[in-house]
Design goal:
The chain has 632 residues and is mainly α. The chain has a single domain, classed as Cytochrome C Oxidase, Chain A, CATH 1.20.210. Helix content is 65%, strand content 1%. It has 19 helices and 2 strands. The protein has helices at residues 21-27, 31-60, 70-105, 113-131, 160-188, 201-233, 246-280, 287-300, 316-328, 330-344, 353-373, 378-384, 388-418, 424-450, 467-496, 535-540, 557-566, 581-602, 604-626, and strands spanning 541-543, 549-551. Strands 1-2 form a two-stranded antiparallel ribbon. A hairpin with a 5-residue loop joins β1 (541-543) and β2. The termini are close together. Residues 558-570 have low confidence and may be disordered.
């Protein structure tokens, strides 16, 4: 590509020169910084979602309380569900994918660094747009699942549903941008010798999740467009009186929603599959089986969506088919559990914080999986439907599963992210508080659900027998809050400490630990050549005649870090330049969405705002296309 002198470029198209401070973060296209931005932003939303949950539990701690009005309660559980699914677990997983995927496959960055930055800014603006509803007439109150006809203007006037539908469409754009990027990166930028069956399991799960997203986001995007058109332009996709069909929404939503469960849990499964071998001092048991079972879960996840719809009236044939597929999908999930147990069996397991969270993940996910299999029995599911039993199952899978796995990943890779070690004692306290609080909160929900307590109701009468268990659940929720505060304290004292982490604190096995901690911008001074699965471990150890691992005398653990820091410039390695234009491009979307909501009340001002947003969007795209990408 020809060099374009900066002097010949219009001022607003010139590259930003600052790579540090605020400007450096706003313009970064470094996959590691974008991963950090995703992680911090998702954790802030985690705090917000947690506060919403605490308010919900306060309302339900005893019968007939009036901590919240019915409408405010509906807003809070809608925002809590939407936040935790779309603004916490998905982007937190994306934080790990962004940071780790290039490092694990021996690449310098993702395939499309600016597209990667765009995905983050669209995610951020989508989340902020959703939460801005709190200041403009009230948050959405129809439930995070958005069932029609509750989403029509007849039943939900105001703009709450509009904020919800438009923000989810923005978040879908962010997910698609990331997914295409990760797939191209993993398939085309692996280091020499890094075959597909030498890739770490977490990288494999990144590929599977990315394929799930690019196929699952379109159905819900279509459904959200239909909701938006019904509300803004008077169409009748879900209006029965005009020939519409509310069940269409359920099919489209759950056609996304059940693959979405695996989009949320597979990254945590990948994380646990990296932690347990390192903590057990042995290779992952049945690596190929773990990989292919993850792929199988991705495929089979498309055949189970209607088990959410057993009470809709699809008929016995459809119910039987989806009940069968729900039972079958438990098989590859169970296979993974046996592989994780097999990895720990006979190993020299170190019960450091990452191992505790990984084992907690396995235990809690087993409980969630077993309760999930009961949903395969259509008559039983008919009784469980819309009760707290469903809430219990869902949280054992996505909190006991995904959140425990993500916390394990944070403790495991924190030295790689920051060059420092989180305090082990506080980490242990965090784990036990979280485990106890989690089970106090969600374990009793199985009981009250089977005893008839309905979800989505803001109060209940005395004499139901639910009083004690609901109080226990509320106490458990506050124990979880204390656990999260312990984690925050751990992060604060760790980042203020000057003590550096060892280069390889866990005796790790995968390629990201070959480079410095934290890694330089270019990741590796020289792209590594891979000769084996668990390449980093094989560089450290050989085997004696009896098959036992013995350290290689020529490997010096600290040399890699010293060399990387000594050559921080990367020997003149050219990396893509920072850019403002992903941010500018993303900013156009919430401006256009705001104008769309203004058009009915403010007429030309709304259409003008849409036009302004379109100009901002096109300016960002135009600048992106013309921005110089070569050094002077």
């Amino acid at each position: 590509m020809a060099t374009i002198p900066q002097a010949a470029v219009p001022g607003f198209l010139r590259r930003p020169t600052a790579t540090q401070g605020f400007v450096g973060w706003v313009t970064t296209i470094d996959h590691k910084k974008i991963g950090a931005l995703y992680g911090v932003t998702a954790f802030i939303f985690f705090i917000l979602g947690g506060v919403e949950a605490l308010l919900i539990r306060l309302q339900l701690a005893q019968p007939n309380l009036d901590v919240l009005t019915a409408d405010r309660y509906n807003q809070l559980f809608t925002m809590h569900g939407t936040t935790m699914v779309f603004l916490v677990v998905m982007p937190m997983s994306s934080a790990f994918m962004n940071f780790l995927l290039p490092l694990q496959i021996g690449a310098r960055d993702v395939a499309f660094p600016r597209l990667n930055a765009l995905s983050y800014w669209v995610f951020l603006f989508g989340g902020l747009f959703l939460y801005s509803s709190l200041f403009f007439g009230g948050a959405p109150n129809q439930g995070w699942y958005g069932y029609a006809p509750l989403t029509t203007k007849l039943y939900t006037p105001g703009h709450g549903v509009d904020f919800w539908a438009l923000s989810l469409q923005m978040l879908g754009i962010a997910s698609l941008a990331s997914s295409f990027n990760f797939i191209v990166t993993a398939l085309n930028m692996r280091a020499p010798g890094m075959t597909l069956l030498r890739m770490p399991v977490f990288s494999w799960m990144t590929i599977v999740v990315s394929f799930l997203l690019i196929t699952a986001v379109p159905p819900i995007s279509v459904a959200l467009f239909e909701v938006s058109f019904d509300r803004f332009f008077g169409t009748n996709f879900f209006n029965v009186a005009k020939g519409g069909d509310p069940i269409l929404w359920q099919h489209l939503f759950w056609l996304f929603g059940h693959p979405e469960v695996y989009i949320l849990i597979l990254p945590a499964m990948g994380i646990v599959s990296e932690i347990l071998p390192a903590m057990s001092g042995k290779p992952l048991f049945g690596y190929a089986v773990v990989v292919f079972s993850g792929v199988a879960i991705g495929f089979m996840g498309w055949g189970v969506w209607a088990h959410h719809m057993f009470v809709v009236g699809l008929g016995p044939a459809a119910n039987a088919a989806f009940a069968t597929s729900t039972m079958l999908i438990a098989v590859p999930t169970g296979v993974k559990i046996f592989n994780w147990i097999g990895t720990m069996w006979g190993g020299q397991l170190r019960f450091a914080a990452p191992a505790k969270f990984a084992i907690g993940f396995v235990a809690m996910f087993i409980i969630g999986g077993l309760s999930g299999v009961t949903h395969a029995v259509a008559p039983a599911d008919t009784q469980q439907n819309d009760t707290y039993y469903i809430i219990a199952h869902f949280h054992y899978v996505l909190f006991g599963g995904a959140i425990f796995g993500l916390f394990g990943g944070i403790y495991y890779w924190w030295p790689k992210f920051t060059g420092k070690m989180l305090n082990e004692g506080i980490g242990t306290l965090h784990f036990w508080l979280l485990l106890i609080g989690f089970n106090l909160t969600f374990g009793p929900m199985h009981v009250v659900g089977l005893n008839g307590q309905l979800r989505r109701t803001f109060t209940y009468a005395e004499g139901t027998g639910w009083d004690t268990w609901n109080l226990v659940e509320t106490i458990g929720a506050f124990v979880i809050a204390v656990a999260v505060l312990a984690f925050i304290y751990n992060v604060i004292i760790t980042m203020r400490s000057r003590v550096r982490a060892p280069h390889d604190p866990w005796d790790a096995r995968t390629l990201e630990w070959l480079t410095a901690s934290p890694p330089p911008e270019h990741n590796f001074d020289e792209i590594p050549v891979v000769h084996a699965r668990d390449e980093f471990w094989h560089r450290k150890y050989s085997e004696d005649e009896s098959g036992r691992a013995v350290p290689r005398p020529d490997y010096q653990p600290q040399t890699a870090a010293v060399v990387q820091h000594a050559h921080g410039s990367g020997h003149g390695i050219h990396m893509p330049s920072p850019s403002y234009f992903p941010l500018v491009t993303a900013l156009g979307l919430p401006i256009m969405a705001s104008g769309l909501m203004m058009k009915d009340s403010y007429g030309y001002a709304g259409w003008g705002t849409i036009a302004v947003g379109a100009v901002v969007l096109l300016t960002g795209i135009y600048g992106w296309c013309l921005e110089p990408v070569a050094e002077e």
